[in-house]
């Protein structure tokens, strides 16, 4: 069975809000799209709640300019009224100011689970990021100096 157009549009909007929240360092906006108990996995990091995910982004240090985009969004019905998603994301990133060139940091496959919340909006319940192409030199740094 296919996903209805209203649900598809709401999930596409959720992904756009996720992207802009990351790019604008809008942690309140990020909190709005994550389920409180989100399961989030990316390049050696795994989190089991929204506050841990947000704290990991807040811990990044230095200059960081990014632009995230997605394509090839496939949606299907999941268990218990959830929606399963698969998409291809690209991230341009720079750790310097001003940004020079067009630095492609990563292309990754995202495997997502979206769940409705009490007010009827969709939240990201699970996101598993699988890098396909990645330039480690463009990884962000944290307050401990380690790239992520």
Terminal residue distance: 38 Å
Q: Structural class of the helices, strands and pairings?
A: alpha+beta
Number of helices: 3
β content, as a range?
over 45%
Low-confidence stretches: none
Major sheet: arrangement of strands: 2-1-7-6-5-4
In total, how many beta strands?
A: 8
What characterizes the major β-sheet?
A: 6 strands, mixed
Shape: globular
Question: What is the subunit arrangement here?
Answer: single chain
| Mean pLDDT metric | 93
- Helical percentage: 10-25%
Radius of gyration: 15 Å
Order of helical and strand elements:
HHEEHEEEEEE
Structure description:
The protein is globular. The protein has helices spanning 5-23, 27-33, 50-58; strands at 34-42, 45-47, 60-61, 65-77, 83-94, 104-116, 122-134, 141-142. The termini are far apart. The protein is of the alpha+beta class. Helix 1 runs antiparallel to helix 2. The strands form 2 sheets. A 6-stranded mixed β-sheet has the order 2-1-7-6-5-4. Strands 3-8 form a two-stranded antiparallel ribbon.
Structure characteristics:
two-stranded antiparallel ribbon, globular, single chain, 148 residues, alpha+beta, 24% helix
Give the gist of this structure.
The chain has 148 residues and is of the alpha+beta class. The protein is built from 3 helices and 8 strands; from the N terminus they run ααββαββββββ.
What topology emerges from the helices and strands here?
Layout: H1 5-23, H2 27-33, E1 34-42, E2 45-47, H3 50-58, E3 60-61, E4 65-77, E5 83-94, E6 104-116, E7 122-134, E8 141-142
Parallel strand pairs: 1-7
Antiparallel strand pairs: 1-2, 3-8, 4-5, 5-6, 6-7
Helix pairs in contact: 1-2
């Amino acid at each position: 069975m296919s996903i209805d157009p209203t649900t598809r549009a709401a999930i596409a909007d959720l992904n756009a809000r996720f992207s802009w929240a990351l790019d604008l360092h809008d942690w309140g906006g990020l909190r709005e799209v994550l389920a409180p108990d989100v399961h989030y996995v990316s390049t050696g990091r795994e989190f089991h709640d929204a506050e841990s995910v947000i704290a990991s982004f807040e811990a990044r240090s230095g200059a960081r300019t990014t632009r995230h985009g997605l394509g090839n969004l496939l949606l299907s019905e999941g268990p218990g009224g959830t929606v399963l998603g698969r998409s291809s994301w690209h991230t341009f990133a720079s750790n310097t100011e001003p940004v020079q060139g067009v630095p492609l940091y990563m292309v990754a496959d995202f495997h997502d689970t979206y769940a409705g919340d009490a007010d009827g909006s969709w939240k990201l319940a699970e996101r598993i990021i699988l890098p396909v192409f990645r330039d480690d030199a463009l990884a962000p740094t944290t307050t401990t100096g380690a790239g992520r």
